[in-house]
């Protein structure tokens, strides 16, 4: 185990300000993958817990001389908190941490977004991400409310607020969960119309004890998610790479070039992120709720500091690079890029997290394809000059 003074301090905080959501997406790790911890959580983070969060973050930053941090508000659905709570939260953070630069972020399903929200977030420079899976007939298969009704029409009505001058300042990106049964180019072209800076395509959560249905027949051989992403990559790389970022593609290219990347789901660089629940519990990344209980650290800000988190085995594991991976991953030529895949996707009851990702075949096919396309492009540019498309 790494010693405390060698572990990287925490600079990214996901603050779960609301534990409930006004959607019930069929793939949701909060509601529909077996975790029930939300039932005993406060609906919202209280003023007392917010004060404790800010004090603990300040303490950690001062101890480790951190001058810049990332704070992302999450849920459930964070806008359920209401404008008064969110405004108070932003002001409390800004006052307590005024010596520290904060990069703000918030992920929302957009159902409650309006012009007043946009003005509030613009005033505090909070970057907004919208979750939407594509056009209505694709989005509304999975992104439904608690009565089973689709969410697309209302979200599209509200996204227009992000096209105002204030909205354009803060509209950071769209997040879409991949449905391999959908048309990838149709989804991509729809998301382009939303005019976000960045598009995130996410693999649905699964692991070796809960294999995604489209891979169940042959998880090592079938590649439905790579087959879905590759046509988008080809179109994006040829026509759109200077107009919109697609994070998974940009990250793979950066890793292939020897860079560190920034996504926790790829690469072997240390991950220095924690989640703070509405009751003040300090948790591992929230997507581990897709494996019930694995997000739990048994720590709370009333009893432990963030320095105490630095020696927790689940935090230390994410600092260990290739040493935390399965033997097959450590031998793989793509390990520096893939990093074994996203942590929740490696799980099995038999081996814990020491497995390749359940999406290993998809990641391999996608990375190899991108590597070839980029290499071929660079050869053409080198031979014919920089103006080659």
Q: Major beta sheet, specifics?
A: 10 strands, mixed
Uncertain runs with pLDDT below 50, 5 residues or more?
1-5
Strand content: 5-15%
Derived structural class: alpha/beta
- Would you state the CATH class of the largest domain? Alpha Beta
Q: How many domain units?
A: 2
CATH architecture of the largest domain: Alpha-Beta Barrel
| Helix run count | 14
Kindly report the average pLDDT value.
94
User: What is the third-level CATH name, the topology of the largest domain?
Assistant: TIM Barrel
Strand elements, count: 10
The percent of residues in helical segments reads 25-40%
Give a concise summary.
The chain is α/β, with parallel strands linked by helices and 389 residues long. The chain folds into two domains: 4-321, TIM Barrel (Alpha-Beta Barrel); 328-384, no CATH class. The protein is 36% helix and 13% strand.
Describe the protein in words.
The protein has 389 residues and is an alpha/beta fold. The chain folds into 2 domains: 4-321, Aldolase class I (TIM Barrel), CATH 3.20.20.70; 328-384, no CATH class. 36% of the residues lie in helices and 13% in strands. It contains 14 helices and 10 strands. The chain has a 10-stranded mixed sheet. Helix 3 links the parallel strand 3 (101-108) and strand 4 (126-131). Helix 1 runs parallel beside helix 2 (83-96) and helix 9 packs across helix 14 (360-384).
């Amino acid at each position: 185990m790494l010693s405390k003074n060698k572990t990287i301090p925490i600079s990214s905080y996901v603050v779960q300000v609301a534990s409930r959501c006004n959607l019930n997406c069929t793939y949701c790790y909060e509601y529909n993958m077996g975790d029930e911890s939300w039932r005993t959580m406060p609906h919202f983070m209280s003023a007392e817990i917010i004060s404790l969060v800010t004090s603990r973050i300040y303490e950690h930053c001062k101890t480790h001389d951190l001058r810049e941090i990332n704070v992302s508000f999450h849920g459930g659905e964070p806008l359920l908190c209401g404008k008064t709570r969110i405004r108070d939260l932003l002001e409390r953070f800004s006052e307590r941490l005024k010596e520290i630069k904060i990069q703000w972020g918030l992920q929302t399903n957009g159902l409650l977004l309006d012009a007043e929200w946009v003005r509030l977030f613009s005033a505090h420079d909070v970057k907004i991400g919208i979750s939407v899976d594509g056009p209505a007939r694709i989005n509304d298969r999975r992104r439904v409310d608690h009565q089973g009704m689709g969410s697309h029409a209302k979200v599209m009505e509200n996204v227009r607020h992000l096209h105002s001058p204030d909205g354009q300042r803060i509209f950071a990106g769209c997040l879409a969960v991949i449905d391999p049964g959908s048309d990838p180019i149709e989804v991509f072209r729809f998301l382009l119309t939303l005019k976000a800076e960045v598009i995130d395509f996410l693999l649905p959560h699964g692991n070796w004890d809960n294999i995604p249905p489209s891979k169940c027949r042959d998880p090592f051989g079938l590649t439905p998610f790579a087959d879905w992403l590759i046509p988008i990559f080809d179109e994006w790389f040829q026509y759109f790479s200077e107009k919109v970022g697609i994070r998974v593609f940009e990250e793979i290219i950066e890793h292939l070039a020897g860079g560190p990347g920034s996504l926790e789901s790829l690469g072997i660089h240390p991950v220095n992120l924690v989640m703070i629940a509405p009751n003040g519990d300090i948790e591992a990344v929230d997507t581990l709720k897709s494996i019930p209980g694995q997000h739990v650290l048994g720590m709370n800000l009333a009893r432990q500091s963030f320095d105490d988190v630095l020696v927790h085995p689940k935090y230390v594991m994410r600092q260990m690079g290739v040493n935390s991976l399965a033997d097959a991953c450590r031998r793989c030529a793509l390990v520096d890029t893939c990093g074994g895949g996203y942590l929740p996707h490696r799980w099995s009851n038999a081996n814990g997290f020491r497995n390749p990702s359940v999406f290993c075949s998809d990641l391999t096919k996608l990375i190899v394809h991108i590597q070839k396309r980029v290499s071929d492009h660079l050869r053409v540019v080198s031979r014919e000059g920089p103006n080659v498309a």
